[in-house]
Amino acid sequence: MELKIISIIFSIYFFVLMSSSVFASMAMPNYGINENTKECSRFFMGDECSSCELPENWKMIEDFQCPNGYKEIDKKSVCKSTKNPFCCTLGNSGSRGDCEDLVVNYVDQKCAFVENIDKCEKLPMNWEKSKKEDFGICPSIDYKWLDETLNCEEKIKDNKEIKDNKEIKDNKEITEDRDKIYYNIIIRIPLAINILGKII
User: How many distinct structural domains can be found in the chain?
Assistant: First the structure.
Protein backbone atom coordinates (compact mmCIF):
# COMPACT_ATOMS: atom_id res chain seq x y z
CA MET A 1 0.00 0.00 0.00
CA GLU A 2 2.77 2.41 0.95
CA LEU A 3 4.61 1.58 -2.26
CA LYS A 4 1.49 2.38 -4.29
CA ILE A 5 1.07 5.76 -2.54
CA ILE A 6 4.71 6.63 -3.20
CA SER A 7 4.27 5.72 -6.87
CA ILE A 8 1.19 7.95 -7.14
CA ILE A 9 3.01 10.89 -5.51
CA PHE A 10 5.99 10.44 -7.80
CA SER A 11 3.71 10.31 -10.87
CA ILE A 12 1.96 13.53 -9.84
CA TYR A 13 5.30 15.27 -9.24
CA PHE A 14 6.62 14.15 -12.63
CA PHE A 15 3.45 15.33 -14.39
CA VAL A 16 3.60 18.78 -12.73
CA LEU A 17 7.28 19.14 -13.59
CA MET A 18 6.77 18.23 -17.23
CA SER A 19 3.65 20.37 -17.52
CA SER A 20 5.43 23.49 -16.27
CA SER A 21 8.16 22.97 -18.87
CA VAL A 22 5.69 22.40 -21.69
CA PHE A 23 3.40 25.30 -20.86
CA ALA A 24 6.33 27.67 -20.43
CA SER A 25 7.31 27.07 -24.04
CA MET A 26 3.69 26.99 -25.26
CA ALA A 27 2.67 30.47 -24.17
CA MET A 28 -0.08 32.26 -26.11
CA PRO A 29 1.45 33.26 -29.48
CA ASN A 30 1.90 36.92 -30.31
CA TYR A 31 1.04 38.12 -33.78
CA GLY A 32 3.01 40.73 -35.67
CA ILE A 33 2.55 42.37 -39.04
CA ASN A 34 4.71 43.98 -41.69
CA GLU A 35 2.68 46.77 -43.22
CA ASN A 36 5.15 47.21 -46.08
CA THR A 37 4.87 43.64 -47.34
CA LYS A 38 1.37 42.93 -46.02
CA GLU A 39 2.63 39.85 -44.21
CA CYS A 40 1.68 38.44 -40.82
CA SER A 41 3.32 35.92 -38.52
CA ARG A 42 3.17 34.40 -35.07
CA PHE A 43 6.13 35.23 -32.84
CA PHE A 44 7.71 33.74 -29.75
CA MET A 45 8.55 36.74 -27.56
CA GLY A 46 10.72 35.01 -24.99
CA ASP A 47 10.41 33.58 -21.49
CA GLU A 48 12.42 33.70 -18.27
CA CYS A 49 15.49 32.47 -20.18
CA SER A 50 15.35 34.57 -23.35
CA SER A 51 14.41 38.06 -24.47
CA CYS A 52 13.07 38.53 -27.99
CA GLU A 53 12.32 41.38 -30.35
CA LEU A 54 10.43 41.61 -33.62
CA PRO A 55 12.46 41.80 -36.83
CA GLU A 56 12.92 45.16 -38.52
CA ASN A 57 9.75 46.68 -40.04
CA TRP A 58 7.50 44.39 -37.97
CA LYS A 59 5.15 45.50 -35.19
CA MET A 60 3.00 43.69 -32.67
CA ILE A 61 -0.80 43.60 -32.93
CA GLU A 62 -3.40 42.75 -30.30
CA ASP A 63 -5.30 40.27 -32.47
CA PHE A 64 -4.71 36.53 -32.14
CA GLN A 65 -4.99 35.99 -35.87
CA CYS A 66 -3.79 37.65 -39.05
CA PRO A 67 -5.82 40.67 -40.24
CA ASN A 68 -7.75 40.50 -43.49
CA GLY A 69 -5.56 41.12 -46.52
CA TYR A 70 -2.37 39.87 -44.85
CA LYS A 71 -0.50 36.74 -45.87
CA GLU A 72 0.56 34.51 -42.95
CA ILE A 73 4.19 33.38 -43.06
CA ASP A 74 6.62 31.80 -40.61
CA LYS A 75 8.92 34.60 -39.43
CA LYS A 76 11.31 34.17 -36.52
CA SER A 77 11.75 36.70 -33.74
CA VAL A 78 15.23 37.94 -32.84
CA CYS A 79 16.10 36.39 -29.49
CA LYS A 80 18.98 36.62 -27.04
CA SER A 81 19.45 33.87 -24.46
CA THR A 82 20.00 34.71 -20.79
CA LYS A 83 23.23 33.67 -19.11
CA ASN A 84 22.35 32.58 -15.59
CA PRO A 85 22.38 29.37 -13.50
CA PHE A 86 18.63 28.74 -13.66
CA CYS A 87 18.54 28.77 -17.46
CA CYS A 88 21.57 26.49 -17.73
CA THR A 89 20.41 23.77 -15.34
CA LEU A 90 18.70 20.57 -16.48
CA GLY A 91 14.95 20.63 -15.84
CA ASN A 92 14.35 24.38 -15.84
CA SER A 93 10.90 25.51 -16.96
CA GLY A 94 12.12 27.89 -19.65
CA SER A 95 14.04 27.66 -22.87
CA ARG A 96 17.77 26.94 -22.98
CA GLY A 97 19.92 29.82 -21.81
CA ASP A 98 23.33 31.03 -22.98
CA CYS A 99 25.43 28.15 -21.61
CA GLU A 100 28.49 28.39 -23.84
CA ASP A 101 30.78 29.40 -20.95
CA LEU A 102 29.43 26.78 -18.53
CA VAL A 103 31.82 24.33 -16.83
CA VAL A 104 31.11 21.44 -14.45
CA ASN A 105 32.92 19.82 -11.55
CA TYR A 106 31.53 16.28 -11.54
CA VAL A 107 33.63 15.29 -8.54
CA ASP A 108 32.32 17.99 -6.17
CA GLN A 109 28.98 18.33 -8.01
CA LYS A 110 29.34 22.02 -8.82
CA CYS A 111 28.64 24.22 -11.84
CA ALA A 112 29.99 27.62 -12.82
CA PHE A 113 30.55 30.07 -15.63
CA VAL A 114 33.94 31.20 -16.89
CA GLU A 115 34.37 34.64 -18.44
CA ASN A 116 35.09 33.28 -21.92
CA ILE A 117 35.58 29.56 -22.53
CA ASP A 118 37.37 30.22 -25.84
CA LYS A 119 40.16 32.02 -24.00
CA CYS A 120 40.68 29.25 -21.43
CA GLU A 121 43.84 27.22 -21.90
CA LYS A 122 43.41 25.19 -18.71
CA LEU A 123 40.60 24.86 -16.17
CA PRO A 124 41.16 24.31 -12.43
CA MET A 125 41.41 20.73 -11.18
CA ASN A 126 38.29 18.56 -11.71
CA TRP A 127 36.57 21.25 -13.83
CA GLU A 128 35.60 20.58 -17.44
CA LYS A 129 33.05 21.50 -20.06
CA SER A 130 29.65 19.88 -19.64
CA LYS A 131 29.55 16.42 -21.18
CA LYS A 132 27.68 15.76 -24.41
CA GLU A 133 25.18 13.52 -22.67
CA ASP A 134 24.32 16.43 -20.35
CA PHE A 135 23.44 18.60 -23.36
CA GLY A 136 26.02 21.24 -22.46
CA ILE A 137 24.23 22.34 -19.28
CA CYS A 138 24.46 21.73 -15.53
CA PRO A 139 23.36 18.10 -15.15
CA SER A 140 21.22 18.37 -11.98
CA ILE A 141 19.42 20.82 -9.72
CA ASP A 142 21.35 19.14 -6.88
CA TYR A 143 24.61 20.60 -8.20
CA LYS A 144 25.71 23.79 -6.45
CA TRP A 145 26.48 26.89 -8.52
CA LEU A 146 29.46 29.09 -7.68
CA ASP A 147 28.50 32.65 -6.83
CA GLU A 148 31.50 34.07 -8.69
CA THR A 149 32.92 33.49 -12.16
CA LEU A 150 35.46 30.66 -12.20
CA ASN A 151 38.98 31.75 -13.16
CA CYS A 152 41.01 29.78 -15.69
CA GLU A 153 44.44 29.99 -17.26
CA GLU A 154 44.07 32.01 -20.43
CA LYS A 155 45.64 30.97 -23.70
CA ILE A 156 49.04 32.49 -24.45
CA LYS A 157 49.06 34.60 -27.58
CA ASP A 158 51.00 33.03 -30.41
CA ASN A 159 54.10 34.68 -31.83
CA LYS A 160 52.28 35.96 -34.91
CA GLU A 161 49.65 37.76 -32.84
CA ILE A 162 52.35 39.29 -30.61
CA LYS A 163 54.29 40.42 -33.70
CA ASP A 164 51.16 41.92 -35.29
CA ASN A 165 50.36 43.85 -32.11
CA LYS A 166 53.94 45.14 -31.94
CA GLU A 167 53.80 46.30 -35.57
CA ILE A 168 50.52 48.12 -34.91
CA LYS A 169 52.05 49.85 -31.90
CA ASP A 170 55.23 50.78 -33.83
CA ASN A 171 53.20 52.17 -36.75
CA LYS A 172 51.11 54.23 -34.34
CA GLU A 173 54.23 55.70 -32.75
CA ILE A 174 55.72 56.51 -36.19
CA THR A 175 52.50 58.26 -37.20
CA GLU A 176 52.46 60.29 -33.99
CA ASP A 177 56.12 61.34 -34.48
CA ARG A 178 55.43 62.36 -38.07
CA ASP A 179 52.44 64.43 -36.98
CA LYS A 180 54.59 66.22 -34.40
CA ILE A 181 57.23 67.04 -37.01
CA TYR A 182 54.57 68.24 -39.42
CA TYR A 183 53.05 70.47 -36.74
CA ASN A 184 56.44 72.01 -35.91
CA ILE A 185 57.29 72.70 -39.54
CA ILE A 186 53.92 73.99 -40.72
CA ILE A 187 52.61 75.75 -37.62
CA ARG A 188 55.17 76.56 -34.95
CA ILE A 189 58.22 77.58 -37.03
CA PRO A 190 56.36 80.14 -39.24
CA LEU A 191 54.67 81.47 -36.12
CA ALA A 192 58.05 81.93 -34.39
CA ILE A 193 59.51 83.68 -37.47
CA ASN A 194 56.52 86.00 -37.59
CA ILE A 195 56.88 86.94 -33.93
CA LEU A 196 60.65 87.41 -34.29
CA GLY A 197 60.09 89.70 -37.32
CA LYS A 198 57.80 91.95 -35.30
CA ILE A 199 60.35 92.20 -32.49
CA ILE A 200 63.18 93.15 -34.86
Answer: 3
Predicted confidence at residue 180, as pLDDT, reads: 54
- pTM across the whole model: 0.56
174, pLDDT greater than 90: no
Same domain, 25 and 60: yes
What is the pLDDT at residue 14? Answer: 38
Please check whether residues 24 and 70 belong to one and the same domain: yes
Cross-strand bridge partners of residue 61: 31
Q: Which residues contact 57 (CB under 8 A, 6 or more apart)?
A: 34, 35, 36, 37
Please, are residues 47 and 95 in contact by the beta-carbon 8 Å criterion?
yes
Residue 5 has pLDDT above 50, yes or no: no
Tell me which residue range forms the domain holding 27. 2-81
- Contacts (Cβ under 8 Å, ≥6 apart) of 139: 90, 104, 106, 130, 131
Strand order in the sheet with 127-129: 127-129, 102-105, 110-113, 144-145
